[in-house]
Every structure is written in structure tokens, then in C-alpha cells.
Amino acid sequence: MWFRLAALAALFLATSQASASASASASKKQPNILFILTDDQDWHMESLQHMPLLQKHLLHEGTLYANHYCTVALCCPSRVNLWTGKAAHNTNVTDVWAPYGGYPKVVREGINDDYLPHWLQAAGYNTYYSGKLWNHHSVENYNQPYAGGFNGSDFVLDPYTYQYRNATMSRNGGRPVSYAGQYSPDVTAAKAHGFLREAMAHDDPWFLVHAPIAPHSSVRLVPDVVMDKPEYADRHAHLFHDYIIPRDDNFNPETQGGVSWVKDLPRLNDTVIRYNDEFQRSRLRALQSVDESVEHMVRILDEAGELENTYIFYTTDNGYHISQHRMHPGKECGFETDVHIPLIVRGPGVSAGHVSKAVTAHTDIASTIMTLAGHALPEDASDGYPLPLTVEEMQASKQEHVTIEYWGLAIPEGIYGAYGDAGMIDPGYGSQPSIAVGNNTYKAVRVIGEGYSLYYAVWCTNETELYNLKTDPGELRNLLAPEHYVNDLHVAGRPVDVDQLARRLDALTMVLKSCRGRSCVEPWSALHPSGDVQGLLDSLDERFDDFYQNQPRVSFTDCKLGYLPEYEGPMDVRPFDGMDHAASGADWGGREQVTLGRNRGHWSIWT
To answer: According to the UniProt entry, which residues carry 3-oxoalanine (Cys) (predicted)?
Structure first.
């Protein structure tokens, strides 16, 4: 593994010598990078609007990426995706606990020795971390082995990670120390401020992460799992008493969207809704400590004369839902609430007060940071592509898709967190049984372009979803369900047969569910090697109808809790070669097509 790391470091240095020379001539050193990573922060419930200091120092002075997504709506696999630049099906870290996730899995997969902080160290950076790194990084395994890649670190450790006034931390690999009675986001902020001053005492460029637990639920793991509202500092208790969760179309809706276990959820009663409103108020209050820390670090940078040579990233690991789609607090779904998340970047050359419409994902972050460091990742070393940071780059960006994938359970949080008997199972985390929902494994794609905004998913039950977010932003009308079927859907101003659209999106998902490297960035090239199709609109040419009609379909043979490819149907698409291939869907390894005969037979499902 160390040989691999050394080889990668040498490749960085060899391939980026010209870039590094140019950077050195323009500045005394490479830019610094400050990264603030919250836990479970939402986009759709206005959390950013309730952080005035973040607005002042980052939103007004940097660029907000309004179409930014996580690819896995769960802490640990999302963080692995973020820090490696690889899709979860390539890291094989897909859960927060063993056997499919958590720190021991990160170690077994070799990631502890081969990810972003190691690459930055090889590029000449000092690296620091304060807060939560991985789930299942605990007081028992913190030194088995030590978390790699950081010159300085103070990690929050399980089983105390989500106990807001009972954190235990390990500094630079030392024995765990209890901070009982102190407010965890304040503790990790103070550690980050100290690391920031330490970093600036050296001439080397630095990379610093502050990863507070806010606004994650307060969690007690033993003897049973209890997940309740996050705690907040006493100084913020007076805030947001009039706030209520936005009553959007998908807030506890009368008509439910979704498939599998979601579609049959009962509506939430008034008692639960009142609790959920207070739950979100508590989340907003918990974020105020983070808001204050943002201002504190900006001031430290400014006073040291380093602000103008520092890129500041602000994001979260995944989104969050509360009451949307009749759900208790939680994540793990493919809905916008769970995967559409905040991202703000401030730094040299980044436009101030700008809102970018570029489609971006956490998979792009590692390659972005390495490019800023002057040591761009080799093309096959990442499943993402550097973020467009200037207005010109944003306008030129043609990226329109995000890979969304998930394996395993949906765990309702909060004191009312239970979904009746909706396929619930014991998650085996030492908790009371029957709190988690199975059958929550799915593959999906989010596609956003000029004149269209779509979400397509195939669940492990082989149910399918297609939402047109232009007309249905709450994702309540599944266009592949009989009650919501329409003959034509308008895409970029022109009518498109819904069934033909679904076939294109299914083929795109087929590529993305097992993509690697450039095929994750340019998936249409796997379907059309000639390069004449570079996006969804190109693929809708009617001359490709038969080609997509006969593609293998995304499918599952069982609902597994982790990435087990043998249960995930065909893995390869058939490239277009310009010939007319008349074959049944089943001949190409897909699900047997079952046409329902409605509306000229356009609506179909695959079983």
C-alpha cells in the first residue's frame, strides 16, 4: 500500500511540475485550504438562511453551488466518497457499521493509507483535522491502526460521538480524553482554531478540516440506541421559537409519492408534527456554534494576512428529511431532501456573491482540492471532475448528471421513529428491534439541464421511479406509476414519450452503477463511443429508440444490505454501433418486460 502511495505521489509531482512552477511564480506558496464539514445539514428547510455569519463571510464573499449533491445519503460512505473522489461502489464502504462500513471497513479497504490527506502531504501540505472523521472510529479501535494522513488531529470517538455534552477525543493519536460537560461543537471549534494558528506558524501550505457533529441527532448507543433532537449551547436557546418546517407540497402530503416501503407510510399526526418542528429548531440552534466558528476562523485568517490565499469550503455529508413524504427525521433516501446539499466555496478567483447552476457532487471535491494544490489527480484516479470555480468555467460546464446509490436500511430518528410494520427489521446495532426499514437499496440518477430536471431510480424490489422536478419539485408523482402516467413529458420544451425517456435514464443508470474513472464523468460515451451523444437531449433522438429499447435493464435479484454485485443484475451496456438490433429486453440480460397495455402500451414495468 505504501508503495502504491509513493507511486501516486511521484505521479502527482511528475505530471504537475509545470502547474506547480506557475503557481510558485504567482504566489509565495500554494493556497491554503480550510474545509468545514457539518453532519446531516439540510438544504430544503432553510438552514443556510439561519446562519447569518456564514452568509456574511462565505455566501456574500464566495459562490453557492445550488445544484450540489452527495451520492450516498449516509455519513460514513458519503465521507469516504468525499475524501477519495470515488463512487461508493468503488470504495465498497456503504454503511456506518460493520460489515459494510465504518472505520474498520475503511482500514480493510486500504483507504486509511490512500486518500486525500495523504495525497496533500505528498504535495507539500501540512494537514489537520478536528471533529468526526469516520463512524465506528472508537475509544477501542482509535489506535488499530491510527487514522492516517494528518500532521495534527483531534478526533471525536464513538460511542460518544453524538453526545453533545459528553465528547471523548484523541489528540494526535493519544489516549482518549473526556470532555464531559462541554458542548462538543464548541470543543471541536476551539481545537480547529488552535490547529489553524499552528498551521500558519509554518511556511508550508496547509489543509485543515473542522467537522463538528452539528446538526446530527443526539444519539446514545448503549445499552439501546436512542436518537433524539440535537442539543444546543445554552446561549442559543432563545432562537427560532417561531420557526416551522416549510409546509411544501411534500410535507406530510395527503397524496404520497415513492415506492417500496415509502408509498404506504401513514400520515403523521399533530403530536409528531409539533415534535418535528421543534426537532428542526434544535438543529438550527445547534448550527449556531458552527456559524460562530466560521466567523472566528475567517478573522484568524484575516489577521494573519492569509485570507486571500485560502480557499474555504463549506458543505455537509448528506441532507435530511423531517416530515417530508410522511417520514420521521432521518436520511438514507434518494429524495432531494436527502441528497441535495449545501456547498459554498470562497477563495482566490472565486466570484463573490455568485450562485452557480453547475451540477456538482461530492465525488468532485478530492480532484478539486488536488487541482488547487497544483497536483491534479491522474484521470483514472478519481470518479469525479474538478469543480468549475470561475464564472467562465461554470458557464462552460456540461455536466448534467449525478450518480445516486444506496444499500441497506432506512432508520427513522426521533422519539416517535417507527414506521409501523413497513418491512422493519432489527439492524443489529445493539438497539431495540424493529426500528429500521429494509428493502431500502436502490440505484438512481439525477439529471439537470436547461429545461429539464429529472430523478430516476430502480429499487432492489425492481420498482421504478421517475419524477419531473420542473413540475413536481416535491417528488410526489411517480410518472412510472399508473395513477400518474402521462403519454408525453416536456423536456427542454419538446414532448418526449415517458417510456422512451425512462429507457434512456435506465441505460444511463446502468453505466453509472458500476462506472469507474472517466466513465463516471462521461457515461454517455459508454453507450455511444462515437461521441455523437454527450447528454440526455442528444440521446432522445428517435433513431436510438430501438437501441435503448433493447438495452439491459438495471435490476436486482435480492435486497442486500451492502454492495454485492452478484445480486445487482447485469453490469454492462451494449454500445451503439449504428446498426438496428431487434432483440427483446430479456435477450440482453434485462428484466422481462411486462407491458400493461395502457395508453398505447407505452407504460411498462420490468420484473
So the answer is: 75
The answer to whether 154 and 176 are in contact (CB under 8 A) is: no
Task: Determine the average pLDDT of the residues in 187-207.
Answer: 98
Number of domains in the chain: 2
Sign of CA dihedral 328, 331, 332, 335: positive
On whether residue 256 sits in a domain, the answer given is: yes
For 19, 82, 159, 171, 263, the CA distances from 153, given in Å and listed in that order, are: 30, 18, 18, 6, 44
Torsion region of 281: left, alpha or beta (phi above 0 gives left; psi -120 to 50 gives alpha): alpha
Taking the model in full, what pTM does it have?
Answer: 0.91
Residue 378 shares a structural domain with residue 492 = no
Residue 9 is assigned to a structural domain of this protein: no
Residues 531-569 have pLDDT tens digits of: 999 999 999 999 999 999 999 999 999 999 999 999 999
Q: Which of 70, 75, 76, 460 is catalytic?
A: 75
Per the structure block, which three cell numbers stand in for 174?
493519544
Residue-number span of the structural domain to which 375 is assigned: 29-397
Position 295 in a domain: yes
The pLDDT tens digits of the residues spanning 459-504 come to 999 999 999 999 999 999 999 999 888 877 889 988 999 999 999 9
* Last residue in a domain, options 335, 369, 397: 397
Task: Tell me how many helices (H) and strands (E) the chain has.
Answer: 17, 22
Inter-residue contact 463 to 480 (CB < 8 Å): no
C-alpha cell at 437: 426499514
Q: How far apart are CA 259 and CA 444, in angstroms?
A: 13
